[in-house]
Structures are given as structure tokens and as C-alpha cells.
């Protein structure tokens, strides 16, 4: 299933509707694969997609490429941008694809009979050429691909909290492993129930 309409239909099933960002996700996913000379459907884990926002756009990329969080071939670096980087893990080549800066204006010019910008974009994004709709640039990953992918089978315990850390995500301080939360501070702070009570409530 590689034709655009079938992919858009599949993406729409996830949301019970189709929106412009879903279309962009599918178009960007297909364009990224073409730029890397990869033909869908891609088997195995050769392609890594890094999306720069979550939501319906990322669903579009997932549907187009087959990359998923569960297979560790889709990652979210939430910069709040409708853009994605596609990496051929075999060659190391990486391409970033984003909508053209004037994509919305060009969409309105394509669909002249639709005064509502949302619906003009929804229609136009499906028929605009890649050159009109998208920007592409070769990029170099600041973190090596091997470090991004890591070793899925590795397990260590944090020297501070004792929780297990998988996928080589530990931080080594003084030759001892720590989780990111203990080493750098995390995205949460503990309040209320103690860890022991939380574990007990889960077991119950």
C-alpha cells in the first residue's frame, strides 16, 4: 500500500477524519524515503524517522514509512515543528524534510474556489508537487546513529534510585551508572505517596 490515497485513508482511520497535518506527514514520509532511494514498504529496521512534533503529523509519517515507536524506528524530538529527519541506517545518509515556508500561500493559490484556508490546504497538499510543497536538506546527526539506536538488550540499575535502565540510556558518573533523572533532573518531581506505597498500590 504505497499510493497516496490509500495511505491517506489509512491515516484518516486513526482520527476519524483527515487533516492537513496528516497529509503533510504522509507526503513528507514518502518524500524522505524517495530522497534516500528507499522503496516502500521497507522491511526491517533500516529506516529511522525522527519527527519534530507529535500528534497527527507523526501519524502521517508513521503510516507512510512503517516506522513505529514500538519497533524503535520512530523517535519524537519535540521541537514543535512540522518536520522530520529520515536516516538510512545502512549508509548513514540523513535527510530533513519540512513544508516549504510559503506552503500555505501556495495552497490557497492552487484551490482558488475554497475561501476556507483549512480546506484549501487539505486539498492542495494532496496535489502539489514536492518542489512546491516541501523543502529538503541533507543533515548530519549531532549524536551518532549507533548511540541513538543503542543496544536494546542492555540493562543496568541506577546507582541512586535502583530502577532498571534499558537501551544504554544510563549516565556514567564516577564509573557508576545513573538514570537520567537522578543524574540531570527529570521531567517530574516526586510528591505525595512514597515509592513503596506506589508499588503496593500497583500490585493490588
What does the radius of gyration come to? 21 Å
Number of helices: 9
CATH architecture of the largest domain: 2-Layer Sandwich
- Annotated CATH topology of the largest domain: 60s Ribosomal Protein L30, Chain: A
Major beta sheet summary? 5 strands, mixed
Beta-strand residue fraction: 15-25%
**Secondary-structure element series:** HHEHEEEHHHEHEEEEHH
What structural class do the secondary elements suggest? Answer: alpha+beta
How many independent structural domains? 2
Please give the number of β-strands.
9
Distance from N terminus to C terminus (CA atoms, Å) equals 45 Å
The strand line-up of the biggest sheet is 2-1-3-4-5
CATH class of the largest domain: Alpha Beta
| Basic shape | elongated
Q: Please mark out the parts with pLDDT under 50 across 5 or more consecutive residues, or reply none.
A: 200-204
Average pLDDT reading = 91
Which features does this protein show?
alpha+beta; 60s Ribosomal Protein L30, Chain: A; 2 domains; five-stranded mixed beta sheet; 9 strands; disordered C terminus
Question: How would you describe the overall organization of this protein?
Answer:
With 204 residues, the chain is an alpha+beta fold. It has helices at 4-15, 20-35, 56-65, 103-110, 117-127, 130-133, 145-149, 180-184, 195-203; strands at 47-51, 74-76, 84-88, 94-99, 134-138, 155-157, 164-166, 171-173, 176-178. It has 2 domains: 4-147, 60s Ribosomal Protein L30, Chain: A (2-Layer Sandwich), CATH 3.30.1330.130; 150-188, Wheat Germ Agglutinin (Isolectin 2), domain 1 (2-Layer Sandwich), CATH 3.30.60. It has 9 helices and 9 strands. A 5-stranded mixed beta sheet has the order 2-1-3-4-5. Strands 6-7 form a two-stranded antiparallel ribbon. Helix 1 (4-15) packs across helix 2, helix 2 (20-35) packs parallel to helix 5 and helix 4 (103-110) packs across helix 5 (117-127). The longest helix is centred in the N-terminal third of the chain and has 16 residues, at 20-35. Residues 200-204 have low confidence and may be disordered.
Amino acid at each position: 500500500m504505497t499510493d497516496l490515497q490509500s495511505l491517506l485513508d489509512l491515516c484518516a482511520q486513526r482520527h476519524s477524519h483527515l487533516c492537513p497535518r496528516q497529509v503533510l506527514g504522509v507526503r513528507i514520509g514518502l518524500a524522505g524515503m524517495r530522497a534516500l532511494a528507499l522503496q516502500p514498504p521497507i522491511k526491517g529496521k533500516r529506516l529511522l524517522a525522527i519527527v519534530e512534533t507529535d500528534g497527527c503529523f507523526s501519524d502521517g509519517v508513521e503510516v507512510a514509512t512503517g516506522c513505529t515507536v514500538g519497533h524503535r524506528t520512530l523517535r519524537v524530538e519535540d521541537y514543535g515543528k512540522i518536520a522530520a529527519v529520515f536516516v538510512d541506517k545502512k549508509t548513514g545518509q540523513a535527510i530533513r524534510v519540512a513544508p516549504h515556508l510559503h506552503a500555505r500561500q501556495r495552497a490557497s493559490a492552487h484551490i482558488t474556489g475554497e475561501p476556507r484556508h483549512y480546506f484549501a490546504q487539505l486539498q492542495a497538499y494532496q496535489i502539489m508537487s514536492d518542489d512546491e510543497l516541501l523543502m529538503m536538506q541533507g543533515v548530519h546527526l549531532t549524536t551518532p546513529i549507533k548511540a541513538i539506536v543503542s543496544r536494546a538488550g542492555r540493562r543496568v540499575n541506577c546507582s541512586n534510585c535502583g530502577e532498571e535502565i534499558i537501551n544504554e540510556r544510563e549516565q556514567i558518573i564516577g564509573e557508576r551508572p545513573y538514570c537520567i533523572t537522578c543524574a540531570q533532573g527529570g521531567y517530574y518531581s516526586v510528591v505525595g505517596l512514597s515509592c513503596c506505597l506506589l508499588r503496593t498500590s500497583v500490585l493490588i
